[in-house]
Amino acid sequence: MRDRGCHPGLDGVRGVAILLVLGQHAMTRPFIDGFVGVTVFFCLSGFLITTLLVRELQTGTIDVRGFYRRRAARLCPALVTVVAATTVVLLVSRGGLRTGQILAPAGAALTYTTSLFDWTGHVFATKDYFNYTWSLSVEEQFYLLWPFALLWGYRRSPRLFAALTVSLIAVTLALDLYLGLSRDVRFDQHEYFGTDTNALPILVGSLLAIVVHNHWLSRTMRYLASGATLAIVLLPVVAYRNDTGRPSLVIVAGTGLTLVLLIGVVMRPRSAVGSLLASAPLRWLGERSYSIYLWNVLVRIAILALLGHTVLGDIAWIAIFIVLAEASFRYVERPLRARLARRRGESGPAVLGLVEAGAPRVT
């Protein structure tokens, strides 16, 4: 990362994350807590976005407008396409829903506010059709604030800013542990969808980026890197357990395992785990993970209605969302992103090749 600005193994981490999510969404549901995959995405997002912004600070400042423009070019085309397709499906099928009940969650998805409605218990009538966009909302809130935090704090004193980030991590960790350990097991909207409860993995990933960029704790990092194999084994174990009543504990466990996994990829890219994550299949999944994340839910709802919770349903579901995701990746995401880059005369830093939180790599 320090020398070349990219690492193929990070695409593989994204591939692992989307597999964990899909394990929960599958008709036969082999994973109960695929929510841990979202935690992996969040931690990776914090690491990569902070890497980009800290490198940009080396030039003296952050081009905030350029940053937001690149984010919009990367994320919006595919999201608008899927939201439009979902809206049409709902308007045609209706299912007892009024037009306003359909357009309201569609608008929330496009404005990245779904998580705020879910967090406060105002669940939309469309339920699963748009609810998956809550995770995109949490990340967008991070994108909105973090560049200004780095401009205000990191530019003045990297060490002091890192200490402040550690303090925020301690607060969010305490909150998650309190929510997970102090109450009877039950599903809590705030615990699952809250920006504050999901801040832990993003902040931990961001701190890791600062540590790696400044060459701090190299001996400790090398020691932790040896645990990457165990981390990649334990992530699906966490996803397999039924801890849906305590998502905050899943966040804590997933964050710790992802941190070790990222350290292993960055510090030992040629290790067995690094080579596995840099393999073609996982990189292919990682590059298309954003499209897969967006399309699989709409396809899942249709397949459940037709085939139910069956293995045949899984096969049909995978085949359809892979075709849709590949088409979206090739004919929507990449062309529109490249067109905007040409219009603005910019391609972004080299690290943008991997700085796509929860999304495929920019090529």
Can you describe what's shown?
By secondary structure, this protein is mainly α. Helices cover 74% and strands 0% of the residues. It contains 17 helices and no strands. Helix 1 crosses helix 15 and helix 8 packs antiparallel against helix 13. The chain is globular.
Give the key terms.
single chain; 17 helices; globular
Q: Can you describe this structure in just a few lines?
A:
The protein is built from 17 helices and no strands. The chain has 363 residues and is mainly alpha-helical.
Sequence-ordered SSE layout with sheet pairings:
Blueprint: H1 8-25, H2 35-57, H3 64-93, H4 99-110, H5 114-119, H6 128-131, H7 134-154, H8 158-181, H9 189-193, H10 199-213, H11 218-225, H12 228-240, H13 247-267, H14 272-277, H15 280-287, H16 289-307, H17 311-344
**How is the main sheet built?**
none
Helix-strand makeup class: mainly alpha
Overall mean pLDDT stands at 88
Q: Give the DSSP E fraction (strand runs of 2 or more residues).
A: under 5%
| Number of beta-strand segments | 0
Q: How helical, in percent, are the residues?
A: over 70%
Give the topology string: H per helix, E per strand. Answer: HHHHHHHHHHHHHHHHH
Give the low-pLDDT segments: 1-5, 347-363
Shape: globular
